[in-house]
Specification:
It holds the Pfam family G-alpha. The protein is α/β, with parallel strands linked by helices and about 475 residues long. It has helices at about 10-15, 20-55, 70-85, 85-90, 90-120, 140-145, 150-165, 190-195, 215-225, 225-235, 235-245, 260-265, 275-280, 320, 350-360, 380-385, 405-425, 440-455, 460-465, and strands at about 60-65, 170, 180-185, 280-285, 285-295, 300-310, 325-335, 370-375, 430-435. The longest helix has about 35 residues, at about 20-55. It binds guanosine-5'-triphosphate and magnesium ion (MG).
Length: about 475
């Protein structure tokens, strides 16, 4: 049975040993001093870490805005490519299916145009002066069209795999048959559907997908088997004429891979970074991407980038995010001066972008938010102007200025800056960049400078430190 004493065990343990010599006492005290020094150092380090953690939990929140197809999701992909390259690579297999869906969609649009040409040819109604006049389709072309019908099955399979149930759908039919495209609700983890099919996700892009599902493999084999027919169809001169009459410029559409059919339908195909940036998947819902970023010798920050759907019907979902954002990157595609909205063909895309920008800069909710303007798709603007497309035919206020990239892009930059000056509730600085966000190198430089600016300047001073 234990005997109770007045001395607590700790005091007892710390007492000098009985009969301690002066030398032993000195050595003990020195040891104790050193132990204390070590313990203080550890405490100091723990405190430093705790303080750093406290600071780093404050996240920098960035919202990507702009009309549909302006390049928001592509900008998000660039953020991923720079800040979490490993997860970007791990998603390659999912993007392969999207590239394949993009190819199959382009072929479907051609087939629909051919069907329309056939219907016109067999119609007994007298053609009006404004009716399209299609060339005659020869039997070889009709046979080719039949041979490509199995691609419908490929589309359904890929679609089913990505949806993994019900998260994907075709666009609303009222957008017209030529506009129908596959959308993903980005709030749902669609990429996981593929990750589950490939249990050895790590490095799966470096070797054959041993665990790929039967459906997925069959879809790829079918696409591969149709490769030659797809190439013949795309290169057929009558098809080119039909598409011209149909006013369908597939090469200007998002997710265009028809010039690379052989490569992307090869059985060993794995998407490159460039393919992933070009692959088109329309967003509905809001997707959120987080990463940790360190600028210079500052404490790492948690960044959250939000990507939203830009189609008209989806814009109401933006507003709840306005409140807590540190910065907005607004994407205005400069190349769209001659295009109309997919969701409303009475509205010019450039006008829609300008109107949206006006709404954003004049919003009282955003008066303290950093605004960054990406004047995007500069590569397409350059190519369009070089091919002789006349800017002033669509933007009459441009007048007689030269029809070149330098002048047109500067004109549009002045237009957007003027709106910001005129409509901001309070004077504000904002940053403007000319971008082509499918160019990962130049976009990486721009995003690097955006990140740096946000951390060091306004956010560093006012909100985050
Ligand atoms: N050539 C070129 N293509 C671009 C550029 N930016 C985006 N794209 C392509 O345009 C298409 C549409 O881009 P997304 O990033 O999906 O557009 P989004 O703004 O997210 O569109 P929603 O999700 O519908 O709101 C994709 O196929 C991109 O690869 C660019 O600067 N140049
Ligand atoms: Mg998107």
């Amino acid at each position: 049975m234990a005997v109770a004493t007045d001395i607590d065990p700790l005091t007892l343990a710390l007492q000098p040993p009985p009969g301690e010599t002066p030398q032993a006492r000195e050595a003990r005290l020195q040891q104790e001093q050193e132990a204390k020094k070590r313990s203080d150092l550890i405490d100091e380090e723990l405190n430093r870490q705790r303080n750093a953690e406290k600071k780093s939990v404050k996240s920098v929140k960035l919202l990507l805005l702009g009309q549909s197809e302006s390049g928001k999701s592509t900008t998000l992909k660039n953020f991923q490519l720079i800040n979490s390259p490993k997860s970007f690579k791990a998603e390659r297999t999912s993007w392969r299916a999207v590239v394949h869906l993009n190819v199959v969609r382009s072929i479907r649009l051609i087939i629909e145009a051919l069907s329309e040409a056939e219907a016109c040819a067999s119609s007994t109604d007298t053609a009006g002066p404004d009716d399209p006049v299609y060339p005659e389709l020869n039997p070889d072309l009709l046979a080719l069209k039949m041979r490509l019908l199995p691609l419908q099955q490929v589309e359904m399979t890929l679609f089913g795999m990505l949806t993994h149930g019900a998260q994907f759908k075709h666009d609303a039919p009222d957008e017209g048959p030529n506009r129908a495209e596959i959308v993903v609700n980005s709030a749902t983890p669609w990429k996981n559907a593929f990750s589950r099919l490939i249990s050895n996700v790590r490095n799966s892009f470096e070797g054959p997908d041993v665990n790929e599902s039967q459906d997925s493999r069959e879809a790829r084999q079918l696409l591969h088997a149709c490769s030659e027919y797809m190439i013949r169809l795309w290169n057929d001169p009558i098809v080119k004429q039909v598409l011209k009459v149909h006013r369908l410029r597939l090469e200007d559409m998002a997710g265009f891979f028809l010039d690379s059919i052989e490569r992307v339908s090869a059985l060993s195909y794995e998407p490159t970074d460039d393919d992933i940036l070009r692959a088109r998947l329309k967003t509905i819902g809001v997707s959120e991407h987080q990463f940790s970023l360190k600028a210079g010798n500052m404490v790492p920050r948690n960044w959250i980038v939000y990507d939203v759907g830009g189609a008209r019907s989806l814009r109401a979902a933006w507003v709840p995010y306005f409140d807590s954002m540190h910065a907005i990157i607004f994407l205005a595609p400069l190349s769209c001066f001659d295009q109309v909205l997919a969701e409303d063909d009475r509205v010019n895309r450039l006008e829609d972008s300008i109107l949206l920008w006006k709404i954003i800069v004049s919003s009282p909710l955003l008066k303290n938010t950093n605004l960054i303007l990406f004047l995007n798709k500069c590569d397409i603007l350059r190519a369009k102007l070089a091919s002789g497309q006349k800017f002033r035919e669509y933007v009459t206020s441009y007048g007689d200025r030269p029809n070149d990239f330098e002048n047109c892009s500067q004109y549009l930059k002045r237009k957007f800056s003027g709106i910001a000056k005129q409509y901001s509730p309070e004077p504000r600085a904002f940053y403007t960049y000319f971008t082509s966000v499918i160019d990962s190198q130049s976009t990486s430089d721009i995003l690097g400078s955006v990140q740096d600016t946000l951390i060091r300047q306004d956010l560093g001073k006012n909100q985050l430190l």
